[in-house]
Amino acid sequence: MDNAHYIRWFSELGIGDVPLVGGKNASLGEMYRELTPAGVKVPNGFAVTAEAYRDLLSQAGAWEPLRQTLDGLKADDMDDLARRGAKARAVIYAAPLPDDMQQQILAAYHQLQEEYGENLSVAVRSSATAEDLPNASFAGQQETYLNISGDAHLLDACRRCFASLFTDRAIHYRIDNGFDHFKVALSIGIMKMVRSDLAASGVMFSLDTETGFRDVVFITGSYGLGENVVQGAVEPDEFYLHKPTFEQGHRAVLRRHLGSKKIKMVYALGGGREMTRNVPVAQADRSRFCIRDEHVFTLADYAIKVEQHYSRQAGYDKPMDMEWALDGIDGELYMVQARPETVESQKKGHILQQYHLQEDGEILARGYAIGTRIAT
């Protein structure tokens, strides 16, 4: 693997590698390398570098067709955006992965199989990065593919992941924020799946997302894979812990809320392209919390360690937004993402904002609301 210039293992990456592998993969590497010794569990994996994306398009001669596809696009014309976005994704998906790139991806995947077993399934996750803008955020704009196994399925998921740099929402976001489409590249993270389809997963913050109060850990969780919680498709369970007293050894949950947890995402069986599906949660499971107090305390410990580490790196307090997963086979809790919290932590605490809804409007999307803002 010495000549594998398209592959970087998490153990080789740190937070300074954002230009090489994007923010998500750089953060996974940082946690795997620096926080595993502190007891924070992170699944192993590797990144396909942003240079692989650039080389893919160059070798396929895809840059000019992409430019022609997007030239003159007005992002507010939804029909035009959808049409051109689909064409841009088709251009990238049609580009064949170069032989050396395929070989390096599969060699790393096979090495991961040696660590975890031949039946290993992986998550294939996008991690975008922009030239000259290492701190730009592209969270939630590209696609993630879960429960991927086998050489052919993995390579296909990588092609789809590269193509997802041009989802409609990603194109619109870049236009709105003045980012050049052709100075943004995509790295791919390939990591062992945590079997939370058999247990639970969720999101947590090292502050209160409603008020910005920094002395609590706020944990949300629901049954199954974590995409439903991330996307707001379920009402999760909630837990609050007070950081100062927790660090003094007083372990208690300040407040808890039982969410409805109506559906859960699990593995899809049948060998089709869709590798996950949503199923109803049994009423008995909905009526109890998805994790026990011992799990809540472990997650709080993880959250505090992650926040302290990233704060030391930054030289100032840095509240964090994190994703976690409980493995239903080995019973362990894993961190699968960490990034700076960028909403409540940036607000000025002495300003009170109030909003008044004057009339009901057309429902554009449904989900679980967090916060007190009104969007138009």
Walk me through what this model shows.
By secondary structure, the protein is an alpha+beta fold. It has helices at 18-35, 50-60, 63-70, 78-94, 99-116, 151-163, 168-176, 227-230, 243-247, 283-286, 293-314; strands at 7-9, 45-48, 122-130, 144-148, 184-192, 200-205, 216-223, 237-242, 255-257, 263-267, 276-280, 320-326, 333-340. 34% of the residues lie in helices and 21% in strands. Helix 4 (78-94) packs antiparallel against helix 6. The model has no long low-confidence stretch (mean pLDDT 91). A hairpin with an 8-residue loop joins strand 10 (263-267) and strand 11. The protein folds into 2 domains: 7-192, ATP-grasp fold, A domain (Dna Ligase, domain 1, 2-Layer Sandwich), CATH 3.30.1490.20; 196-346, ATP-grasp fold, B domain (D-amino Acid Aminotransferase, Chain A, domain 1). The longest helix has 22 residues, at 293-314.
What structural keywords apply?
376 residues, alpha+beta, 6-stranded antiparallel sheet, 11 helices, 34% helix, globular
Write the SSE topology.
Elements: E1 7-9, H1 18-35, E2 45-48, H2 50-60, H3 63-70, H4 78-94, H5 99-116, E3 122-130, E4 144-148, H6 151-163, H7 168-176, E5 184-192, E6 200-205, E7 216-223, H8 227-230, E8 237-242, H9 243-247, E9 255-257, E10 263-267, E11 276-280, H10 283-286, H11 293-314, E12 320-326, E13 333-340
Antiparallel strand pairs: 1-2, 2-5, 3-4, 3-5, 6-7, 6-12, 7-8, 8-9, 10-11, 12-13
Helix pairs in contact: 3-4, 4-6
